[in-house]
User: Fold this.
Amino acid sequence: MATQQRPENYYDIVIVGAGPVGLMLSTCLARWGYKIKHIDNRAEPTPTGRADGIQPRSLDLLRNMGLKSAIMAHKPARVYEVAFWDPPKRGKGIVRTGTWASCPSFIDARYPFTTLLHQGLIERVFIADLEKNGVQVQRPWTIKGFTSDEKANPEYPVEVRLEHVDGTSSETVRAKYLFGGEGARSFIRDQLKIGITHKDPIAYVWGVMDGVVKTDFPDIKMKCTIHSEHGSIMVIPRENNMVRLYIQIASSTDADFNPRKTSTAEEVQATAKRILQPYSIEWERVEWYSVYPIGQGIADKYTLDHRVFLGGDSCHTHSPKAGQGMNTAFLDALNLAWKIHAVEAGFAQRKLLETYEPERKEVAETLLSFDNKYAKLFSQRPPAAADVEAATSSAAPDEGENAFVKTFKESCSFTSGYGVFYRANDVNWSPSHPAQSRAFLPPTPRLAPGRLLPNATVTRVTDANVVHLEQEVPLNGSFRLFVFAGNTPDNRALADLAAGMARKSSFYASFARPDADTISHHEKHNPHSRFFTVCTVFAKPRAAVEVARDVPPLLARYLDHVYADDVWDRQVPDARASAHAKMGLDAERGGVVVVRPDGYVGAVVRLEEGGATVEALNEYFGSFVTRRLGGEGGKL
Amino acid sequence: MATQQRPENYYDIVIVGAGPVGLMLSTCLARWGYKIKHIDNRAEPTPTGRADGIQPRSLDLLRNMGLKSAIMAHKPARVYEVAFWDPPKRGKGIVRTGTWASCPSFIDARYPFTTLLHQGLIERVFIADLEKNGVQVQRPWTIKGFTSDEKANPEYPVEVRLEHVDGTSSETVRAKYLFGGEGARSFIRDQLKIGITHKDPIAYVWGVMDGVVKTDFPDIKMKCTIHSEHGSIMVIPRENNMVRLYIQIASSTDADFNPRKTSTAEEVQATAKRILQPYSIEWERVEWYSVYPIGQGIADKYTLDHRVFLGGDSCHTHSPKAGQGMNTAFLDALNLAWKIHAVEAGFAQRKLLETYEPERKEVAETLLSFDNKYAKLFSQRPPAAADVEAATSSAAPDEGENAFVKTFKESCSFTSGYGVFYRANDVNWSPSHPAQSRAFLPPTPRLAPGRLLPNATVTRVTDANVVHLEQEVPLNGSFRLFVFAGNTPDNRALADLAAGMARKSSFYASFARPDADTISHHEKHNPHSRFFTVCTVFAKPRAAVEVARDVPPLLARYLDHVYADDVWDRQVPDARASAHAKMGLDAERGGVVVVRPDGYVGAVVRLEEGGATVEALNEYFGSFVTRRLGGEGGKL
Assistant:
């Protein structure tokens, strides 16, 4: 993928900042073969403190990258429930007034908990992976300036001046892209004169303390929000017997509000002791303590020219209490990574990059509104037990529910990561998409473009392994074509799909690998095209699937991606074919689901006899790829 | 644990052989603080070939040791199903005539598959763990001789002469124990003049070949038994696209049988090609090829003096095809390890060591009978589809079933490891045990002394984590006391249990740690006694368990081991408290389950108000521990 024979100081991308957003971007692009200059102005990874919450869907993502076990090897804390503590109706002190699930069962999560681990350990997992792919983060180096001029140099429009933080050495490099993942005080954002819009005049000063404590407070290993007459605290458990306490020190609603107000560790500990009465708490060790003002701000632009991009905290700042910072950073980076790859590898038109800002900025806006709402929820009294029960029931949100239950369900969906979605555009089909084939299936609550592919468990035919379908294609930068083949006697529609895909100008055949003849027969994911991995799922028992008979050779070449939809699922207990049912697809006729490289559905198409299925796919991909598709006997 | 101030060449144990049995023993004892001399006559771990099958229950064990993720990081093959291929009714070649689950759903396995990974990689996982505990395997060294004389030296009765394999250096060491895990050609067994009894005059010569192949045989990633007019093969998938083929070269039933018959790799490949017709097979690479005669033999004794012990292949040899060798070796070692620990740490009387041979020899006998039966099963035609369906149904074996179904179910139970059991003795209570309290609960099909504790999923109260109960106590050498507390309004029986355990001469208080005052409050598993970890499981929802109110302080000290039995389980879908139900315990009254350090149930006792529960436990432990128990207001 990397351009050959370029000068040594030419890179595909310069990435500034090795926090979560920079590392995720770097790790993806390094795996996909790009040449990266990655710098960070810190001498080493985050030593203590900072972000630490990995939400359920982010854990899926880390697993898809093969990084989950390295994270879990550190034995992070897992938060399954949130407990509420308040003053009792009579008397002093605090009592537990309720609990709720942090990821209730109506969210069909593989890992229904928040994983809490020190950011530095998470960074090191990424750094180790980068090093396997030949990328070293250059430290402590900083960016001193940059220019971007596509006219002067259409291929490498960006020039970046870098310097060792002590000024002893410097270098100037050229790149196709520059990425600013420097955090809230972004030099790149400042240079671009991109403003920050504060969503709300309210601002807070928070204290945060990580440490090992001795306490008889019973919920010290749970996430807790504690309100007392002496103030409020949030408790977050951590790895290695540690606990994080968030203590609000000042709010702009205070009469004497001062965003520079501070507080010593001792003062905060004394406050915590008062709040936790009648329970005792003593610190055996304080690992990290910090005070910081928080405003809810969002960058006006994420890019000006689609060459210099921003992501992560450079674009959005908010309260850390909901544990969203790192997760949002991961998704900013992933969203940009696959789009850069699609463009630079020659698959997508450059305009695909224009979807980065609207997709990710809207998620940030949602996050900020959520953060605001969440703060209010936590300053209110806890809800009645019946409401909590209704809120955690397995039904998805519906219109008839009361406002609290609805807000809770939506919040849980959003904070778990499963509820993050993208609006209609070229890659997220909708009825107003340029592709107007009648073969597109309209969005449903189960399966909709812009939303994640639902999780589903199936049996791999070739080795009878029971597997998680959504994890079967690794994060390889390819679109994932899930062909739900249903269960018809003759597999006619499947044969027609394969025949259509084999036509020279199809979305699939147009992007055949040039090295097709030299590819090992062990290649599982990209034997034919670098841009597609194809999975075929039959709605019948594994033993009834006969690959030689049922699967056309084009699809059978992805032998490790032929599945039987024959595993019972508690979410759809009566379904004959759970995966089909979870997608809302007919167990007889099936359907084709296009999934973007980041796991979000792109389009859903009927699986029909004749040419309509492939024509619809040609139309869909035709709206953003570099080749003209279809036209050989199809409608185009 | 290790005796202080002993001469440098004095060890707790000398272990000869660093295959699965030696490494498991060494790893356990190293973790529990023993001083080990471990030698192996090979210059490095197994480079290729040998055993490679980890059965479901062994994977549980590895997880309990914290070694599972290191194993799984190698991406081993997983066998979920076995396929049968035979000549078609008409015509030539082979056809698939059936499949069955390798670990059917009637076995409640956490990991219902066989894990296949090269033995050398597995050895390295153990070796890395050993090194963390300061033990290095000394290579290539061999044993030249030994004596054992308890009269001459009661504490260190064994003297062992060791030598570098090239004879350049040697040393003589003293030890409390000597263990022979040297494989089938055991020097130690020979020196002890312990004979091998061959169960059956039949012997075989097998060829085994590991390699990477190119084939259109559709089940190459499954375990297969293939019978054809040209001979028989067993296919076992391996990691890294490898496959193992077992080919029978000769059998003592052949007219010209010669146990030294051999065959070249090329001859075996040619045979395999003929057998697999009409499918093609080519080898891209052969990693390992070996021919070996197999007899089903068992050592007459595993020890003569309970100081010099044998285990693993030194004691039993059989066909490798059922993938039992490594698993049996693991369990030999584990069985011996905890007993040596119990004796040397001052908990159990020395006679506990006398249970090693009968427990493990009977399992080996069962294995040999199974191996014999298995060989016959595989040489027969496959069963009818209806039989296979009946055999894989979720019901446990019952009397009314036909012989095939019954054999199949028993075989699956045994080979998965879940069906391995030990007969009644001092540690496995039965009605004929010296402890005769009426509080003992009789064995049931769900829960019986000598059998594994059933798997059960529960919620940990302190942090609301959903956990696997059977994994909650790590392999720490301690007895596990599972107090199923049921759900009574006043927890009276629980309070009486705690009061009884607190009495000075109870089984529990008698073995209080001498360093009790200096133990960190973070100590989760052994805060009071090195010999017990105590878990308390309530049959009510987590939110209804209030530790301060419901759990007596003695039990609440194990705060991380207080659970709520509130997780739905598909095996007992209608149960209100699944874990209680899976144990066959009353959801109201509960019961106390003593589990040996190796995960096998020792005794089950009613949980009753008054002193009877603790009295029964005092009687049970009193039969094999070093202290006189009970007698303060109890019956003893």
User: Anything to note?
Assistant: The longest strand of chain B covers residues 196-215. The mean pLDDT of chain B is 91. The longest helix of chain B spans residues 356-379.
